[in-house]
Amino acid sequence: MMQKISRKQKSVNRFSERGNNKFSYSVFFVFEITTKDTRFAQRARKLIDLIMQPNKRPSSIAYSCYVTRSRQGEQFIPEYVFGYQVSGTMIMNDGNKEYIFEPGDFRFSRRNHLMKFNKLPPEGGEFKSFSVHFDQPFLRNFSMEAGYKAEKHVGGDAVIKLEAGNLYKNYFDSLSSYMQLNGEGDAGLITLKLREAILLLLKVNPELKDILFDFSEPGKIDLEAFMNKNFHFNVDLSRFAYLTGRSLATFKRDFEKLFHLTPSRWLLRRRLQEAYYLIKEKGRTASDVYLDLGFEDLSHFSFAFKKQFGAAPTKIL
Description:
This protein is α+β, with helices and mostly antiparallel strands.
């Protein structure tokens, strides 16, 4: 029987001093595992509980462990992420394109993107991946110190597959020992590993300079086109507002003026309309579509569907 472990931990912000300048930064090292091993699951739970204790939690390191057949979900990616797929398969989809990463693959995820993901272990094996996150304060400080700056705005895919190489592989192999750091005095060591990652990316993939040091924020864009493209992502309204270049208050005002409904009501109606089409015309089932359309659980989806259309999803076929 599959074991599932899940703990949520927010980013840990630390302050570093360099000369007379103070800057805050967040760095995450994420190690994820999928397994059938019950004894391993018990040990992992104990490890996570130890890490989550306030006095034991590693400074600037977040550790998460999942033990399950597969893990699906969606998220807003607020910062750049440098990742390495150790085992299993990572499938990511931003609504425009699907990205598939197999063992040995390296990836660079761009900030300010909505993303769905599916983490699949190999048959009889475990899903493992490492990720290092770079936040804006850290990158701004690095930019000022090292003299790097973006020369142009670069568009393109939300996730970039990086060519495999020994430099990247050796870097991620070195991260295992850093999972044991848990003292306030370890922040400097974490900072060094974060700087090392930036320098490696700039050496192996110098074209990333114009992405990493582009500190511009999303501008005001076509609200109707954006929402009709991204309604299926289950994120807070504040995220939708930010990505369309608006404050939350302006977003709500513009939204109701355009759609004549509140954002929450419109999102529910639009998701249900799409569900009806997929079930009626494409032969999909409720269990197939509810997660893809932004519903958190099947029972809520079924209740809302019946309320909207007068019949349960199973009666529409």
